[in-house]
Write a structure and sequence with these properties.
The structure holds 2 protein chains of 2 kinds.
Chain A: H1 7-12, H2 14-19, H3 24-35, H4 38-53, H5 64-82, H6 86-89, E1 112-113, H7 115-125, H8 132-141, H9 144-164, E2 169-173, E3 176-181, E4 184-189, E5 199-207, E6 214-219, E7 227-231, E8 238-247, E9 260-263
Chain B: H1 3-12, H2 16-38, H3 41-57, H4 67-85, H5 106-110, H6 114-122, H7 126-138, H8 142-149, H9 153-176
Helix pairs in contact in B: 1-2, 2-3, 2-4, 3-4, 6-9, 7-9, 8-9
The chains are: A alpha+beta, B mainly alpha.
């Protein structure tokens, strides 16, 4: 999305989301928006109904030989499976399957996640619009590790709120946008090539009125070149941010030409 | 109600005859989506097997609503996965199941058929219709739609939005008749 993304732009993209023609990182933002905006939900229901109906266009007769062949292959497996005792098929399901994905994020000093994961999370969990009461109720039930996951979810929700907020400051950079809201700084990047083997991306920050870069978090984009990173710094103390490619584990000072350098002014 | 919904209740209970009925009722749709997107009957056949095996082995993936719509989305996304694996790399994906407090217009979806959809599409200006069809069956983003049709991105957005609205209205009218 551009640096000028706002609620109206997101609203205009709801129909595109329903039709399934948005790139994944944009789709994730729009999904989050729909989950939090009544007007967008109404628009989505209308557009999605029409989009879903399009599938009927493909409902045409299938060659009878092919149809019979497909059916026979399927039914032979299904009948055999149906004859298997249920206990042999059953697998234990985690009590809160949708929570587990977030567990690994809980202890991270910075959040690094692909927005597409957010979209998947929406699908799995039923809603992104978690309120604190629900979180509190869940927390009472969950194990320690799952509590960490819930805390991550709370952080994730806050990050999404920040990224979508109309009062956030947005600074365009070549691979995406730097978003600042309150004391928080995020990189919302969607066009990052994979770093060379044995390398990662590293964030850098410099105080106001200084050009000395301090090392910050390292991160790797997902397969689609998407990464959303929250920097573990107070935005009020930062005048410039940058990203460069560094060896695994990061560097104490940039060793390559930065992917971008962005004054926050 | 979409008959697939009732059948899925029985499929969850491992009822093979319900699954067979489900296959008989929906394999044309699944195969047809695969064929439209992949353009290859053999691949569409594999896709159909794949989708119905998912229905059998993971029936809980269907969480209610319109079965027709759900299985169509599964088929479309699987077909796009196949395109990706063949290095065609479509970038878009239809949202699988964004849950809402108020469900989609399931009564509308349950009562439409191919002819109704064609009739509804026919009410659209050709520039809206072609973008919507290309978007749904082509697995491309709106950026790519703009490039292919040499149309400004904003115009593509507007046409898709207006087209889907108009189509929804037309479908509603036809269902209520």
């Amino acid at each position: 999305m551009s640096d000028t993304v706002n609620r109206e732009e997101l609203f205009d993209s709801v129909a595109l989301y329903a039709l399934g023609v948005l790139p994944r990182e944009e789709a994730a933002l729009v999904a989050a928006f729909i989950a939090n905006d009544d007007r967008a939900r109404g628009e989505y229901v209308r557009a999605r109904t029409a989009a879903d109906a399009l599938a009927h266009m493909a409902d045409e007769p299938v060659d009878s030989t092919r149809s019979a062949r497909m059916k026979e292959r399927l039914m032979s497996r299904v009948r055999a499976d149906a004859a298997t005792p249920a206990i042999a098929r059953s697998r234990p399901r985690p009590a809160y399957p949708a929570m587990s994905w977030a567990t690994g994020l809980a202890a991270a000093a910075a959040i690094v996640f692909a927005l597409v994961t957010v979209a998947q999370d929406l699908t799995l969990r039923g809603t992104l619009a978690l309120d604190d009461r629900r979180i509190t109720t869940l927390q009472a039930r969950l194990s320690q590790s799952d509590r960490a996951a819930v805390e991550s979810q709370r952080t994730l929700t806050r990050a999404l709120t920040d990224l979508l907020a109309s009062d956030a400051r947005r600074y365009p950079v070549a691979p995406g946008t730097v978003v600042v809201r309150g004391d928080r700084i995020y990189f919302a990047l969607s066009k990052l090539p994979p770093p060379p083997k044995g390398h990662v991306y590293q964030a850098w920050t410099a105080p106001r009125a200084s050009t000395t870069m301090s090392p910050s978090v390292t991160f790797t984009p997902n397969a689609d070149g998407v990464a959303v990173v929250r920097l573990p710094v107070d935005a009020a103390r930062v005048g410039t941010v940058a990203v460069s490619v560094e060896p695994d584990g990061g560097s104490k000072a940039p060793t390559t030409t930065p992917t971008f350098v962005r004054p926050l002014t | 109600m979409d008959p697939g919904v009732r059948l899925m209740d029985r499929v969850r209970a491992r009822d093979a005859s319900a699954f067979e009925a489900l296959y008989d009722g929906y394999h044309r749709l699944v195969f047809g989506i695969g064929l439209r997107i992949l353009g290859d009957p053999a691949l569409a056949e594999d896709l159909t097997q794949n989708v119905f095996l998912k229905v059998w082995t993971a029936p809980d993936a269907f969480r209610g609503g319109s079965f027709t719509a759900w299985v169509s989305r599964v088929a479309r996304n699987r077909a796009l996965d196949v395109l990706r694996s063949r290095a065609v790399h479509p970038e878009s994906e239809i949202p699988a199941d964004l849950p809402l407090d108020g469900a989609l217009d399931d009564d509308v979806l349950a009562r439409i058929d191919a002819q109704r959809v064609r009739d509804a599409l026919a009410t659209l200006p050709s520039e809206q219709r072609s973008l919507i069809e290309m978007g749904f069956f082509g697995g491309v983003t709106h950026h790519e739609l703009a490039r292919r049709t040499d149309t400004p991105l904003g115009t593509v957005k507007t046409r898709i939005r207006s087209g889907l609205r108009r189509m929804r209205e037309a479908l509603g009218e036809r269902v209520s008749r």
